């Protein structure tokens, strides 16, 4: 543990105040201890005062026993290491606690101070390992997502432009609805077009400019979410993201891909959000302003979750205002939004609506050095 980092906290739970006081006396100066008198107080502490590195619970308590409490804690604080104190008569219950609550260790009463201290040291070590593993996994996940989005931006800039535009709407909707784990919805938006890597550029150009498609072209384009899921299946922790992407074309009434009986609120929430923002983006690409686009969405009865329509309407009214600026390629900055396509001849390098990242700016400047691009470039900059 870093000298500047506070020590990990441990929560002891028992229905007898005298027992909790004895733990405080035995462990004073060795660990950062909180106590909870009974399961209800423990639940409140875990929700309000956590995270706890270790949760140690008595087995026999009124209302909710230790096994039940730790099974609940497994969902509320999954990284906490859970231990239980039990008498020999409770052995069957202790085995159940290990199975249902994923209990790291159980200690038998009476438990001497040295045995308890060694168990707590081991539990804290286990907690640190789990935290380190999670951080490595998160960094790997973030790196994989960045590689995919950068690849989409360079290979299919119009597809990335659409993903960039809708991600802002999705972020705002997730905030408006106070959704948990908003990163999942934003990631689903950024990766929603990753299956388009396998589609021809002329088809994508027609789609993203709101032009009509032939029946064959429509069928080809409707297959891109399934292709995205195949690509993402090998990346851990992206299952909710994959499901949102898979159902991005599914109407609220159940019509549309993928085939199957899901409809209404059985459709993954991420898919319902993507459906409304993608269709709104298509209407905007076809030339409709915000008010006209929303009006058109509302006419399509059964297509969208009404809550998503309302959230989109609210967030559109809260969008930041932008200044239009014309700048040279050398003056482009991160987070500027392109107000025009950046083209090399007839080829789109970066699409209108795309938010500029450092990678994209470097790529654009390198291209500009080799083959001069038309300047100035029109960009949108938020008014602060």
From TrEMBL:
The keyword Transmembrane helix does not apply. The keyword Aminoacyl-tRNA synthetase does not apply. It comes from the Bacteria. SMART domains: REC. It holds the Pfam family Response_reg. GO terms for biological process: phosphorelay signal transduction system. The modification 4-aspartylphosphate is found at residue 58. Residues 9-124 form the Response regulatory domain. Keywords: Phosphoprotein. This is Response regulator receiver protein. It comes from Desulfarculus baarsii (strain ATCC 33931 / DSM 2075 / LMG 7858 / VKM B-1802 / 2st14).
């Amino acid at each position: 543990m870093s000298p500047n980092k506070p020590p990990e906290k441990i929560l002891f739970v028992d229905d007898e105040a005298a027992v909790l006081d004895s733990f405080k006396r035995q462990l004073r100066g060795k660990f950062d201890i909180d106590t909870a008198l009974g399961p209800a107080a423990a639940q409140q502490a875990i929700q309000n005062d956590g995270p706890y590195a270790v949760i140690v619970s008595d087995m026999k308590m009124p209302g909710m026993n230790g096994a039940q409490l730790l099974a609940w804690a497994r969902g509320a604080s999954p990284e906490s290491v859970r231990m239980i104190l039990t008498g020999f008569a409770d052995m069957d219950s202790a085995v159940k606690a290990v199975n249902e609550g994923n209990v790291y260790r159980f200690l038998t009463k009476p438990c001497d101070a040295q045995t308890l201290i060694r168990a707590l040291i081991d539990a804290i070590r286990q907690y640190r390992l789990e935290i380190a593993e999670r951080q490595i996994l998160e960094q790997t996940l973030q790196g994989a997502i960045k590689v995919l989005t950068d690849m989409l931006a360079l290979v299919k800039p119009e597809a990335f432009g659409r993903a960039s535009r809708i991600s802002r709407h999705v972020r705002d909707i997730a905030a408006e609805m106070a959704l948990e784990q908003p990163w999942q919805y934003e990631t689903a938006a950024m990766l929603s077009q990753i299956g388009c890597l396998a589609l021809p550029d002329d088809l994508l150009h027609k789609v993203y400019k709101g032009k009509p498609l032939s029946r064959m072209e429509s069928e080809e384009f409707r297959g891109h979410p399934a292709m995205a899921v195949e690509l993402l299946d090998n990346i851990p922790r992206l299952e909710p993201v994959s499901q949102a992407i898979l159902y991005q074309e599914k109407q609220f009434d159940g019509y549309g891909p993928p085939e199957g009986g899901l409809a209404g609120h059985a459709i993954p929430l991420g898919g319902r959000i993507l459906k409304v923002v993608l269709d709104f983006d298509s209407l905007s690409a076809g030339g409709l302003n915000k008010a006209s686009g929303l009006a058109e969405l509302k006419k399509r009865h059964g297509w969208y979750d009404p809550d998503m329509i309302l959230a989109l309407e609210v967030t559109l009214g809260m969008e930041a205002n932008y200044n239009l600026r014309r700048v040279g390629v050398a003056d482009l900055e991160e987070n500027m939004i392109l107000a025009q396509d950046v083209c090399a001849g007839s080829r789109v390098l970066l699409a209108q609506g795309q938010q500029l990242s450092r990678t994209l700016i470097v790529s654009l400047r390198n291209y500009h050095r080799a083959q001069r691009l038309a300047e100035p470039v029109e960009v949108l900059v938020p008014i602060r």
